[in-house]
Amino acid sequence: MLRNLSTLVLPLVLLGLAIFLYPKAEALAVAQLPLIQLLPVIIAVITLSLCFKFNRSLLFFSTLAVVIIYAVMQWYLPLAAIVEAKIVWLALTVLLPLNMMIISLLKERGMLTWWGGSRFALLFLPLLICMIMAKYFPELLRPLLGWNFLDLAFLKHSVFSQLALLMMILALLILNGRWFVQATAQNSAILIALLAAIAMLYFKSRYTAMAVFASAAMLMLVIAVIQETWSMAYIDQLTGLPGRRALEEELLKLGGNYSIAMLDIDHFKKFNDTYGHDVGDQVLKMVASRVRQAVSGGKAFRYGGEEFTIVYPGKSSNEVKENLDFVRICVGESDFRLRNKDRRQRKARKSSDKIVQVTISIGVANRTEKLVVPHDVIKAADKALYKAKKMGRNKVCS
Hints:
Elements: H1 2-26, H2 33-54, H3 57-76, H4 82-104, H5 114-136, H6 138-145, H7 162-181, H8 185-202, H9 207-234, H10 244-252, E1 258-265, H11 268-275, H12 277-294, E2 299-304, E3 307-313, H13 317-332, E4 335-338, H14 343-348, E5 354-357, E6 360-366, H15 374-390, E7 396-397
Parallel strand pairs: 6-7
Antiparallel strand pairs: 1-3, 1-6, 2-3, 4-5
């Protein structure tokens, strides 16, 4: 849970900074206003470029949704007639949370595809229709956007319409649900960016405050792009453990005393051939989870295939054997349930699910006068791993 909450820290810090800074920004000289107004657009261009390069479509369209609304509020509404500006703003307060909610429910796809074209249409067409209707048919649009479907006294004092409040609450609930299911940097940034965007909508006639909250939202999203790109490069997608590239960088940090353990799932190929690759992937996830939880004083990595690596800085192989034995026991004592593929049968007869035991073999080596280079230590740990296999598996050898 703490790991999930940590993904919210940076977006919340940026939101807090925006709340702290906007009164100070409003006190700046008028000559600085154009730069402050352009800042969210500059950050948005950077964010959109990075999203396009790394194919992060959800962050791309989330950024686009916020910056379009910001641009309309900052440069279109001041030039529009009073009635027209009021109706367009009412439309923006509904469209922004609605668009963010819809975007969050979509899957990652390319931007320059039919799928991407439909997302562009989702962002631009309703806004253009509302702007045209606000200019030429305001009497048709205003009653809908300002419709009060609840007769509650405190709602009458709200800056936002009841329809806008409903969209905001729904969007926040759905985004919060997505974050709860998968607490990634992306989901965290989109959730808190929506809060910043709502604050931006609130300060509709205070252009500096509007720019500060829009900038905060853009920064959350651009940082999420960087974090997600880093995660793609360094974190193994299947197991959630740091991958081979992260291991290589960890090896460069090692000092004069360290141990490296190599772990291998016993009979994994036979298991894969018998039950299928999907079940094999589930086994890899389970083993990675148990290893992560059981390791103490070291860091676990996905080495490749069914192999994992644990690096213990500052410890000899004798010092880490107790922890490695604990890792081995934690995996071996975890029941892995092969569930019936038919859901109805599974609900009716859970007892028919087959329980299998998954075990691991471990080899460990430490740096010596002969094993100076980390990759030589890994080779020595690999030899110890094969020794554990020959001795009957489910053992720790050095």
